[in-house]
Write a structure and sequence with these properties.
Radius of gyration of chain B: 16 Å
Structural class of chain B: alpha+beta
Number of helices of chain A: 9
Oligomer: heterodimer
Shape of chain A: flat
Distance between the termini of chain B: 53 Å
Largest interface: A-B, 29 and 27 residues
Radius of gyration of chain A: 19 Å
Order of helices and strands of chain B: HEEEHHHE
Order of helices and strands of chain A: HHHHHHHHH
Number of strands of chain B: 4
Number of helices of chain B: 4
Amino acid sequence: MQKILEAKHTLWLETLFGAFTLPCEQKERLLDFAMIEYRHLKWIAKEIVRSGEDFEWSRETPKIEFTDTKELLEYLSAKLAALSYPEGPLYDRIRSDEEYMSFMLQKLAKEPSRPITAFSKALHYEGLDAKSLQALVQFLFEEIYKEYELILVYTYAQLHTQKAQLGLIFEDLIFESIYHLKSFATLAAKLGILFVPREVMREVYKFEDLELFLQEGIEEEMAAKEQCRTLSQAIQNEELRKFFDFIDHQETYHIELMKEALKVTKR
Amino acid sequence: MEQESPVIDPRYLELMIDPTNYGEMKEYDAKGYGKNKETGEMVVIYLKVDPSSQKITDIAWQTNGCGTTLVSGALFSEEYKGKTLQSGKEFTEAVFEKIKDNPPPDAACGEVVARAFMAALKDYEARQRGEEKEFVEYVTLSCPVPEGEDNAKDS
């Protein structure tokens, strides 16, 4: 099942990051599909844990760079159609979802194709001076990876905890990170520097000490808040400034969630 | 005010998007960890070594670190590949000397990579003696070491 998990992990990233290269209406459709892929990924991982085995977040190299939207949509549709699974209720569900998604992607591929600009390295954002832009690019490189890492770490932790309350906190944190990842990757695509985050090292998600992990996580969230505040102060563009204030306030609540998780862990 | 061009060094941008030699090595001759206790940053380096020439024929590495650690890891790995273990060690010691004399603001990011390489060298030597354990080296020159922590201890 580890091999199936790796294929699903790759497909999730290809669908998710592929979505950021598309125009708005197609993007929303693909983001929904990416969410379904993430749930498949989690369910397959849960099956592995339930069978008494453990899993790894290794993956193949995701392919997201295409010249136009038609090429990407056809690639994803063909990839979905080519996957095969064993029998059983979970895999029947996955097969059915993927048949529908493959069909819809083919339909989208018939719409007028547009060139993809998410990898152009244009590095232009209206109203930003060079210093603000540098800070923004640095932030996006670090935070896109970090949010991906958090999604994997919290998902792994959620699938390994016996404490329901802790599981719910991890669920909240996963959805928060998915939203942040989506927001940051959208900005990266706009700047022409979209990328799939590097693989997360095993030692990061298979941590030995949950308390220590949460304490370090709280410190990281505080550092992220500081970065958001610095960016917000440095950036002249009003929409971006308000965006980083908004993310800053979200991080404040993440810290509360992590403190709550810390309390539950100590019980 | 509109930005001037180029805003980011293209080489730096390339390494951030696709860092050289990044990944896990399944079959290796040495593996070492570098850790920064203050930030929680970690680097693991894997080496494949030709036993007769002692040359590093392949290298892979991974990190949970920041952008500067990522770029340092990529550049250091390019430097190490093809070197003998001894010249890799000399290069790393020169890095430590530079940091010790005048640590730049991002020195910890380079040091954690260099520490991982030194840990991998220790692992290689241990494996030659038939010993198997995990080697970890901690950042000391560019960050204060927390009280009660010794560097270069095996875990």
